[in-house]
Input
Amino acid sequence: MLSELVEAIVLGVIQGLTEFLPVSSSGHLELAKVMLGDDSVSEQSMLMTVSLHAATALSTMFVFWKEIKTIFFGVFNKEGTEQRNYVLKIILSMIPAVCIGLFFEDFIESLFSRNILLVGLMLLVTGGILFIADKTKRTDRKVGFKDALLIGIAQAIAILPGISRSGATISTSVILGIDREASARFSFLMVIPLIFGKMAKDLLDGSFTAIESSSTPLICGFIAAFITGIIACKLMIGIVKRSKLEYFSYYCFLVGTIAIAYHLFS
Output
């Protein structure tokens, strides 16, 4: 039982840090499961993954509570055109990921089975995207509707373990010429409805009802992910503003190479 709690906390810390830092939370979770000898069935593994993502979604809401409140009340305000447009952009950005999730759910879940080679290759892709984005010229342009759709496509691709969701969406925004801080804010806010939508779908489908697993590890992992997520979210906003994405690209190149070598020689 103690080992399960320690494992859950470790996974929670990894999720909290890597959800916001552009190094792929899903990829690192898969790597951690291999290193920790996680032999849980795929449904249990997916349950932990969904729970940890829910924790980081809540940490995002905690950090951006003022912005979320402004957007929410602005939607119902006669003069809240800007807020309504922002919500429409978030909805537009969700469409690609929703389509992928609905039509390829079984295939996606099969990828979360400790596929270290795939994780390693996708981390190299993430590193390349981050490196290019870091060299992009700064602008002060806001997110447009076309931008939202393109960023949404990047988010859909980031379903692959090893492709960083925040790295892909922020980098795409920056490459499109959007202000860096606005890119980070949109990237973090756009994922909240997707995560809760995924959780609601799984609960309604009864995907996890047949799993006999103690809730204590899930709670410990959830708390660890929530706390570290708050810290990492605030840290990432500052990193993007200071143009430090290049360093994360080197990290992704290193971990990706190690993961590929581990697969080939283990």
The mean pLDDT is 83. Residues 215-241 form the longest helix (27 residues). The two ends are 28 Å apart (CA to CA).
